[in-house]
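Can anyone check this?
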Amino acid sequence: MGMMADGVSDADEWGGSNNDIEKQLASAYIHKGDRTIKIWDVATGKLLLTLTGHTGQIRGLAISSKHTYMFSAGNDKEVKCSDLTQNKVVRSYPGHLSSVYCLATHPTLDVLLTGGRDSVCRIWDIRTQTHVHAFLGHHSTVCSVFTRPTDPQVVTGSHDATIKFWDLRGGKAMSTLTHRKKSVRAMTLHPKDQQCFTSASVDNIKKFSLPRGEFLHNMLARQTTIVNTMAVNGEGVMATGGDNGSLVLGLGEWPQFSTITNNCTTRFTL
């Protein structure tokens, strides 16, 4: 089933070059109930586009920094590539045996990474749709993944409470971090200082170094929510989203946090 566009589809308001899309699309909202992807203008809160086509809850979303592509995945086992200049699906990547939880695009290669409930991280050639590698080794859902231009080029986190570093060329695990006692639900890599990353679990947020994965310190040891998503911007401000609806912001080197539950600068109304 193809992904169709509803809502605003005027070319003057949506589409254009990749730089135009980056300015218009600062975030995309995945609405679990109606299985749609809603794309917003963050500055105004205006709904730009609604994409439909997934037949199950949508769990992962990734935007290419090199192309005008958006990748989505979910409980329907589908991985879809939408061209945002055409507002339609142009490719799909079949192969996962169960729900797909996370996606990431490589910063320099035309490669897509997907992880899911089948405990596998799969590597795809974006253009040819070729299944390049299946990273095997986790014993439960792969629910977070990020990639970087130097080794380890692929890092995955799983409900089996481990983080694995992978050799992208060889398709094998390089090392496994076992500092966690509970599921690794989210990870993020600093966009500028790519020598460290953070991972979130039920009990706390931990910071690790790269490329060796040394544990540095706990960043939020007394959290009161399950963190399911996290991101950091170029200024070092980290945001985490919890299952209680809270947004937590960390500043500077991330030792101090503030929680936002009701106040926001822009509201997105469905």
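Reply from J.R.: I decoded it. Residues 4-15, 23-29, 254-268 have pLDDT under 50 and may be disordered.
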